[in-house]
TrEMBL record:
Residue ranges of domain Tubulin/FtsZ 2-layer sandwich in the record: 253-386
GO cellular component, one term: microtubule
Name listed for the protein in its UniProt record: DgyrCDS4090
SUPFAM superfamilies: Tubulin C-terminal domain-like, Tubulin nucleotide-binding domain-like
CDD domains registered for this protein in UniProt: epsilon_tubulin (cd02190)
Family per record: Belongs to the tubulin family.
GO molecular function, one term: GTP binding
Gene Ontology biological-process annotations: microtubule-based process
Keywords (A to Z) from UniProt: GTP-binding, Microtubule, Nucleotide-binding
Organism whose genome encodes this protein: Dimorphilus gyrociliatus
Highest taxon in the source lineage: Eukaryota
Length: 426
């Protein structure tokens, strides 16, 4: 089996990462009842001081690097229940944060911390005997995650070109009041396009909607215990658990992580994968009861982690990662039904990649993670659906903004020659 390293950057990246480690430990504990250090655990955990032959668990440490340019979030983690899962060597912090500024994270901290990041990655990589993937987790709205996170992405792309790079990128919601969010997002997206193998965009608005709907359905106000983002982050953590289940557990049709990029990304830059899940909540007892329901649920917009509609657009490829005791014939039957709704590009009409992992998520009988490479991700139609609006308007607006900036800039740098006032000789 192969191993992966998780690099969590900034507040959002670290908070999501911690929900992932917490739930991953629960999942392994529910399967690995004898408590042995098996290949499944080895894929994401080191066994510090363990006896390689006896496979007894000594001291489990996450294959992770925690990076933030302020100390609050990481210090909090090191005081919490996961404190023993990381050692101090795995942390890289600074004091003042990036102030929601991509340039500070990318240019300033990216340069300052380059060596210590490389050193940390090297140490983690050396502890793996077959390193396959980096999972980089960060938000797009703040400065550290978007700026330094993408600087780390570029660094590992250059230093470890053969190791796959999956990025989980959290996009800001409509009510995000940080004025620099859209700029950070755009600058970071440029880096993701150039250096990632696969990006899983997540919209915070979708996570909020899912949590609110869940609360309403259960006639309760949002769970007040835990940290503010915990419920939302659990959804992202479950996405990562489902995505990596094949590389952690046995299955009759296991999909290796490299197969995901190979099958879902036909053009290197078009690697933005839309994800949706069923069940979408990890809560016991809430979720589809019949197998076929996971297919219908995962294909409704309510379970999407990005607000767009793949059924109205063109699929380049689709991946269905199923967990639990499910037969291939059941999957084929459901794909036949889905095929009538999904429009594929003509050269990949049967572009379904199926994964079957026998271990279901904790508290559920089965689950489905649907991964779609679909043209709707560029959801420009919110604009172009209205009247005569054409896509060229964006280019025109961009050009006009650029020349406006140049004109102001020109005034800023111009050497003014002020004619001396005429003196009146009396
Ligand atoms: N889903 C989710 N979103 C978060 C979380 N924490 C922050 N965000 C979102 O992330 C964006 C802000 O980015 P942060 O991750 O806080 O910023 P940072 O990377 O720490 O960068 P600086 O604080 O500027 O140094 C906003 O859109 C927040 O709504 C989290 O735990 N979960
Ligand atoms: Mg921060």
């Amino acid at each position: 089996m192969t191993q992966s390293i998780v690099i969590q950057v900034g507040q959002c990246g670290n908070q999501i990462g911690c929900r992932f480690w917490d739930l991953a430990l629960k999942e392994h504990a529910s399967v690995n009842r004898k408590g042995i250090y098996d290949d499944a655990l080895k894929s994401f955990f080191r066994n510090e001081g363990g006896d390689e032959n006896r496979k007894t668990i000594a001291d489990l440490k996450a294959r992770a690097i925690l990076i933030d340019m302020e100390e609050g979030v990481v210090n909090e983690i090191m005081k919490g229940k996961l404190r023993n899962v990381f050692d101090r060597r795995q942390l890289i912090t600074d004091v003042s944060g990036s102030g929601n500024n991509w340039a500070v994270g990318h240019m300033v901290y990216g340069q300052q911390h380059r060596e210590s990041i490389l050193e940390n990655v090297r140490k983690e990589a050396e502890s793996c005997d077959s390193l396959q993937c980096f999972f980089i987790l960060h938000s797009m709205g703040g400065g550290t995650g978007s700026g330094l996170g993408t600087s780390v992405l570029r660094l590992v792309a250059e230093e470890y070109p053969d190791v796959y790079r999956f990025v989980t990128a959290v996009y800001p919601s409509f009510d995000d009041d940080v004025i620099t969010s859209p700029y950070n997002t755009m600058l970071a997206t440029n880096q993701l396009t150039n250096y990632a193998n696969c990006v899983l965009p997540i919209e915070n608005q979708c996570l909020t909607n899912i949590i609110e709907r869940h609360a309403k359905m259960n006639k309760q106000s949002e769970k007040k215990t835990g940290k503010p983002f915990d419920n939302m982050n659990d959804i992202v953590a479950n996405l990562l658990l489902n995505l990596t289940s094949s590389s952690r557990f046995e299955g009759s049709l296991n999909v290796d992580l490299n197969e995901i990029t190979m099958n879902l990304v036909p053009f290197p830059k078009l690697h933005y994968i839309l994800s949706s899940m069923a069940p979408i909540y990890s809560t016991k007892g809430i979720g589809p009861r019949r197998l076929d329901e996971i297919f219908t649920d995962a294909f409704t917009s309510l379970n999407h982690l990005v607000d767009c509609d793949p059924l109205r657009n063109l699929y380049l490829a689709s991946g269905l990662l199923i967990r639990g005791n499910v037969q291939l014939s059941d999957v084929r039957r459901n794909i036949e039904k889905l095929q009538m709704k999904c429009k594929f590009v003509p050269w990949n009409k049967d572009g379904w990649k199926i994964g079957l992992c026998s271990v279901a998520p904790v508290d559920h009988r089965y689950s489905l993670l649907s991964l779609s490479n679909n043209t709707c991700i560029a959801h420009i139609h919110h604009y172009t659906d209205h009247g005569e609006m054409s896509i060229n308007e964006f280019d025109l607006a961009n050009e006009s903004l650029k020349s406006l900036i140049e004109e102001y800039d020109d005034l800023n740098t111009r050497q003014w020659i002020v004619p001396e006032r005429l003196k009146i000789v009396l």
